[in-house]
Automatic annotation (TrEMBL):
The gene is dhcA. It comes from Marinobacterium zhoushanense. The keyword Transferase applies. GO terms for molecular function: transferase activity. NCBIfam families: pcaI_scoA_fam (TIGR02429). Gene3D superfamilies: Glutaconate Coenzyme A-transferase. Keywords: Transferase. InterPro entries: 3-oxoacid_CoA-transf_A (IPR012792), CoA_trans_fam_I (IPR004165), CoA_transf_BS (IPR004163), NagB/RpiA_transferase-like (IPR037171). This is Dehydrocarnitine CoA transferase subunit A. It holds the Pfam family CoA_trans. Belongs to the 3-oxoacid CoA-transferase subunit A family. SUPFAM superfamilies: NagB/RpiA/CoA transferase-like.
Length: 233
């Protein structure tokens, strides 16, 4: 059964094949459940003109935000971009293309892409700039817009535990976009905090089956807090 073993020994091997102009789907929400070491490897590779699909673009100096420092991202498809000053600067100066997408629609774009569904109708965004240029149909008396699904050349995902066959468990809210992202990559790379042997995970607790995972690596994580508010003494 050695052919089922998804574990790789380095981050270079984990992201091998990523090239200029590719599309990368990244799990995470804010700084929760982000594949921070895989993002760092993308920065080290110096690939450029990337399209990144993720809920947001990290913060200045951490997460996906580090890919803005050398202008490695050409286009960002996301839901929320309010925590990153460099992102704002590049957007306003025309150096970064941004496609804002409602959060639920973005999640469904990933899920549908992974399921082989090319497009779907949703009422979300009708009558707003989100709907501009998109087909409209009426269902049960309510207008819906046609949204295309998303597939990536790579999907990068952060899990909690996985077995060597790539079956992945996420921890609490760190699950977020990760399960959808994991299904939507031509090559899906998962980094986790712990790798166990096949059979050690409860099958009923597995969120992403190993069939979706191509490469698996164990890493260590900073788990930075995005915003910290404390009471004055």
């Amino acid at each position: 059964m050695a052919g089922f073993d998804k574990v790789v020994g380095s981050y270079e091997e984990a992201m091998a094949g990523l090239d200029n102009g590719m599309t990368v789907i990244a799990g995470g929400f804010g700084l929760c459940g982000i594949p921070e070491n895989l993002i760092a490897q993308i920065k080290r590779m110096r690939v450029r003109d990337l399209t990144i699909v993720s809920n947001n673009c990290g913060i200045d100096g951490f997460g996906l935000g580090i890919l803005l420092e050398d202008k490695q991202i050409r286009k960002m498809i996301s839901s929320y971009v309010g925590e990153n000053a460099l992102f704002e600067k590049q957007l306003l100066e025309g150096e970064l293309e941004v496609e804002l997408t409602p959060q639920g629609t973005l999640a469904e774009k990933m899920r549908a892409g992974g399921a082989g569904i090319p497009a779907f109708y949703t009422a979300t965004g009708y009558g707003t700039p989100v709907a501009e240029g998109k087909e409209v149909r009426e269902f049960n008396g309510r207008p819906h817009i046609l949204e295309q699904s998303i597939r990536g050349d790579f999907a990068i995902v952060k899990g909690w535990k996985a077995d060597r066959y790539g079956n992945v468990v996420y921890r609490h809210t760190a699950q977020n976009f990760n399960p959808m992202a994991a299904t939507a990559g031509k090559i899906t790379v998962v980094e986790v905090e712990e790798i166990v042997e096949p059979g050690e995970l409860d099958p009923t607790q597995i969120h992403t089956p190993g069939i979706y995972v191509d490469r698996l690596i164990q890493g260590s994580f900073e788990k930075r807090i995005e915003q910290r508010t404390v009471r004055s003494a």
